[in-house]
Amino acid sequence: MSRKIEVNNRTYSIPSQPTIVVCVDGCEQDYVNQAILAGKAPFLASLRSSGTVLAGDCVVPSFTNPNNLSIVTGAPPSVHGICGNFFFDEETQTEVLMNDPRYLRAPTILAEMARAGASVAVVTAKDKLRSLLGHRLEGICFSAEKADQVTRQQHGIDDILARVGMPVPSVYSAELSEFVFAAGLSILREERPDLMYLSTTDYVQHKHAPGTPEANAFYAMMDHYLQRLHDEGAVLGVTADHGMNAKTDAIGRPNIVFLQDRLDEQYGAQATRVILPITDPYVVHHGALGSYATVYLRDGNVSGREIMAFIAAIDGVEAVLTRAEASERFELPSDRIGDIVVLGERLTVLGSAADKHDLSGLTVPLRSHGGLSEQKVPLIFNRKLRDIAGTRRLRNFDVFDLALNHLA
Ligand code: ZN
Ligand code: ZN
């Protein structure tokens, strides 16, 4: 009998062989499909017969942090509390960055595995995720972005630059993700952790559509490393935090609904406050534009129902939900979303006020995520799985369960 632990009401077997979960940021399924068709991902192609290829739904808002935290806790945001990069704190009337672990309301599978005696390693591309993913984790945890600053005392490892043989990559580069894989391979070979979590960045996917030379080269790079990790005997589970879609018209102009401007025109500047939880310190490639926005009502004189009807009639808006509806449907913490939740259609993003968005960094047609249209993501394993066919709606945050509990 394998030993088990319980985390957030789910049971996980402690792995008897190294198990690696990879979160490929922004991995719309067609990226893998196109790379395979172009002959650039032979290892992933081979998993059709030797492994298991499934699809699952990510968490809405289809953003990076809510989904990475769902994956490592095995639970939706209503349990772990992280539902965006930002929320509006109604008590202090300020916009609060949710990168700090004090906003995390649940333990991670990673930390609990380590507490049960397993050796655990985490490598993330951007440093913004490191402290959340590494919360209470006794083990290796660092970001590629700050790989030059790792210390054994703080990050559980040192000299990673020398081991990987790469300089610290730019935060806006494909190499930032490559570094994650190179470091993961080195750690697998030397420390051989029982459990490892690798999380990349979606810089490439924001810029390049599936099947383009740049996207195929990126997936070829990942395929190469996944093959190496497989050759070292690791169990692999590959999923994504969310998909990615073009958010443009037929000639590449962005489709943007500037929601704060529209609401101000209709109801006056003091009636509403639009919060975009995609906003983060690294906005160059998407201009803080995604297909999800929340609205706080500031003026009791205008009814929420009337404002919802007004927003629902705007071209490009897919859905408008009350706080209660959104927290139930998407399993969100109701105290950290707005009075109204708005989702953009597949080709549309939601902005606040036009003058608040710096679009000068958008040198190629806008691609982004956040809505329902980016919910489907791959769940790919290098082993056959048992007991899963058609039994339940799969989520990306089932990936640890599938990799640890369902190996054939
Ligand atoms: Zn992401
Ligand atoms: Zn993104």
Explain how this protein is built.
- With 408 residues, this protein is α/β, with parallel strands linked by helices.
- It folds into 2 domains: 4-244 and 370-405, Alkaline Phosphatase, subunit A; 256-368, Gyrase A, domain 2, CATH 3.30.1360.
- 30% of the residues lie in helices and 20% in strands.
- It contains 15 helices and 19 strands.
- It has helices at 29-37, 42-50, 64-73, 77-80, 109-115, 130-133, 152-155, 160-164, 175-190, 203-207, 213-231, 259-267, 304-312, 323-329, 399-405; strands spanning 4-7, 10-13, 19-23, 52-57, 86-89, 94-97, 120-124, 140-143, 195-199, 235-239, 245-246, 256-258, 272-275, 292-297, 317-322, 340-344, 349-351, 367-368, 376-381.
- The strands form 6 sheets. A 7-stranded mixed sheet has the order 4-19-10-3-9-7-8, sandwiched between helices.
- The longest helix is centred in the middle third of the chain and has 19 residues, at 213-231.
- The two termini are 15 Å apart.
- The mean pLDDT is 95.
- The structure holds zinc ion (2 copies).
- One zinc ion binds next to loops.
Descriptive tags:
Gyrase A, domain 2, single chain, 408 residues, 15 helices, 2 domains, Alkaline Phosphatase, subunit A, alpha/beta, binds zinc ion, 19 strands, 4-stranded antiparallel β-sheet
Detail the topology: elements first, then pairings.
Blueprint: E1 4-7, E2 10-13, E3 19-23, H1 29-37, H2 42-50, E4 52-57, H3 64-73, H4 77-80, E5 86-89, E6 94-97, H5 109-115, E7 120-124, H6 130-133, E8 140-143, H7 152-155, H8 160-164, H9 175-190, E9 195-199, H10 203-207, H11 213-231, E10 235-239, E11 245-246, E12 256-258, H12 259-267, E13 272-275, E14 292-297, H13 304-312, E15 317-322, H14 323-329, E16 340-344, E17 349-351, E18 367-368, E19 376-381, H15 399-405
The structure holds zinc ion (2 copies).
The site of one zinc ion has 6 residues, from loops.
